[in-house]
């Protein structure tokens, strides 16, 4: 491939720190953020969004959120820019992360309206923030299994969170933001349950009643399109360009989120995906293919399980002491873990939180992650991916605490129904292997098969037309290893 000539560093010469890999980068002078000797970062098409995204992206957590006393987070952001990284992540839940971007953006002339504003540079990057508010309007009532949260004391709904992001990143952190400020994408943060999906789609799947309450999606659409259908955008501002969601926990809920979008709302998905993905109900054979088929931009995260692959127990980070500040470990190097995520079919880029940078490229997390991410989507054969899975499982078997649905293997087709001479069903869920096809049986005999393709809309189930009605009809999901799971029509 054309890009491979730019990257002479072999994947097998990953910094452990080995002599070969050290030599490959030690000649690069990065003192004072001098990065002119780095190769141009590899990029991939970002779904159908008309943007080429670098394979490595800067996460908004680690030292940007839980900042150790001896770390200045602003140079981390500046160095990422100078290295050519073009995707930047943050959230309203990430403590001072958005304010750290503000400090860096002032130095980069990325504040609209200020002297020297670099509009060209702003258009060259993708800036994403997030809201964990499920409602689009204040005055909602608490519901079981529906999360609504923000670090903003005055935040009452998702619209408030968007404006909080703008005032923290581009404005005065006091509610004001300059004309021309915008976010490239806002993600509904850490989707966990189908009950949350139900709330998010209120006002879309049901009649929109502005005097009542409605979900975040219809309100975010107003901020994207410059409309005021909800009454929450009276100035008809266009504050965001794209809408998406993130998720760590529940593949069925995430699939439901995508399949219910027949309104052109969702453009992006941030998803937990690492080498221990298959220790739970996995993302790579379930959610990711559906998002890819929908044309969404797909961002990987939690490649090191929020440092649970390394120095802390499997739980969410809480303090600066939880920030990992090394380059992997000899027992579990970081480079193969990054390569595993970026060779997962459908993943376009990977956000990684940075604990610290260093003038010595061998010790700099940002530089080492950069090199590890220079890999093509098909740059790792299946047998090598399997070896990395086996090694990660051996070293850190319980790392993926954030994936709450236990491993269950291939499921049967769901919601099997018969209408006239047609049988319909909703997608099965995959186990360790992708689903291949569905076998239809009538009175114990094979009547035909239907190829499995990711089901992008719930209202468009799989369909098979029966020629022989019979008395007993069943449909079995079959994966690429030959495993079967059958549902009987009742």
Describe this structure in words.
Mean pLDDT is 93; it is low at 1-34. The protein is α/β, with parallel strands linked by helices. The strands form 4 sheets. The protein has an 8-stranded parallel β-sheet. The relative contact order is 0.12. The longest helix is centred in the C-terminal third of the chain and has 14 residues, at 382-395. Helix content is 22%, strand content 18%. It has 12 helices and 17 strands. Strand 1 (43-45) and strand 2 form a beta hairpin.
Summarize this structure as a short list of keywords or feature phrases.
single chain; 490 residues; alpha/beta; 8-stranded parallel sheet; 4-stranded antiparallel sheet; 22% helix; globular; disordered N terminus
N- and C-termini, Cα separation: 52 Å
Oligomeric state as shown: single chain
How many helical elements? 12
Radius of gyration: 23 Å
Strand content: 15-25%
Judging from the principal axes of the Cα atoms, what is the shape? globular
Q: Mean pLDDT, rounded to whole units? A: 93
User: Low-confidence spans: pLDDT under 50, at least 5 residues?
Assistant: 1-34
- Major sheet: order of its strands? 3-10-9-8-7-6-5-4
Q: Can you write the helix and strand succession as a string?
A: HEEEHEHHEHEHHEHEHEHEHHEEEEEEE
* Helix percentage: 10-25%
Structural class: alpha/beta
How can the largest sheet be summarized? Answer: 8 strands, parallel
Q: What's the number of extended β-strand segments?
A: 17
């Amino acid at each position: 491939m054309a890009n491979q000539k730019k990257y002479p560093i072999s994947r097998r010469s990953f910094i452990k720190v080995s002599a070969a890999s050290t030599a490959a980068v030690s000649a690069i002078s990065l003192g004072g953020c001098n990065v002119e000797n780095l190769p141009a970062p590899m990029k991939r098409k970002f779904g159908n969004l008309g943007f080429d995204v670098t394979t490595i992206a800067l996460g908004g957590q680690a030292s940007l959120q839980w900042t150790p006393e001896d770390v200045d987070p602003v140079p981390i952001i500046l160095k990422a820019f100078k290295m050519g990284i073009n995707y930047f992540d943050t959230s309203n839940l990430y403590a001072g992360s958005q304010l750290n971007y503000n400090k860096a953006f002032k130095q980069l002339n990325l504040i609209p309206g200020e002297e020297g504003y670099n509009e060209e540079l702003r258009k060259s990057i993708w800036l994403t923030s997030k809201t964990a508010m499920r409602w689009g309007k204040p005055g909602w009532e608490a519901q079981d299994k529906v999360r609504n949260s923000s670090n903003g004391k005055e935040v009452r709904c998702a619209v408030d969170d968007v404006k909080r992001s703008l005032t923290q990143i581009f404005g005065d952190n006091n509610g004001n933001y300059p004309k021309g400020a915008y976010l490239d994408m806002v993600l509904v943060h850490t989707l966990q349950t189908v009950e949350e999906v139900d709330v998010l789609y209120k006002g879309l799947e049901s009649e929109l009643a502005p005097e009542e309450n409605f979900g975040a999606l219809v309100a975010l659409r107003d901020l994207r399109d410059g409309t005021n259908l909800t009454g929450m955008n009276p100035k008809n501002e266009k504050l965001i360009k794209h809408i998406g969601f993130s998720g760590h926990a529940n593949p069925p809920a995430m699939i439901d989120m995508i399949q219910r979008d027949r309104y052109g709302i969702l453009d992006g998905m941030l998803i937990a995906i690492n080498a221990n993905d298959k220790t739970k109900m996995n993302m790579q054979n379930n959610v990711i293919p559906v998002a890819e088929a929908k044309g969404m931009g797909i961002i990987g995260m939690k490649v090191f399980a929020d440092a649970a692959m390394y120095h802390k127990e499997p739980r969410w980070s809480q303090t600066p002491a939880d920030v990992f500040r090394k380059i992997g470990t000899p027992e579990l190097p970081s480079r193969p873990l990054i390569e595993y995520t970026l060779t997962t079919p459908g993943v376009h880029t990977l956000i990684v939180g940075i604990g610290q940078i260093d003038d010595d490229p061998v010790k700099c997390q940002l530089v080492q992650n950069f090199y590890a991410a220079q890999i093509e989507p098909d740059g790792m054969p299946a047998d090598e991916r399997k070896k990395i899975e086996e090694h990660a499982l051996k070293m850190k078997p319980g790392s993926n605490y954030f994936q709450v649905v236990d491993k269950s293997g291939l499921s049967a087709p769901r919601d099997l129904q018969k209408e006239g001479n047609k049988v319909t069903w909703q997608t099965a869920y995959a186990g360790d292997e992708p689903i291949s096809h569905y076998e239809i049986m009538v009175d114990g005999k094979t009547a035909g098969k239907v190829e499995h393709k990711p089901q992008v809309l719930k209202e468009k189930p799989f369909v098979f037309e029966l020629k022989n009605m019979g008395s007993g009809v069943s449909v079995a999901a079959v994966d690429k290893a030959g495993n079967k799971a059958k549902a009987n029509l009742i």
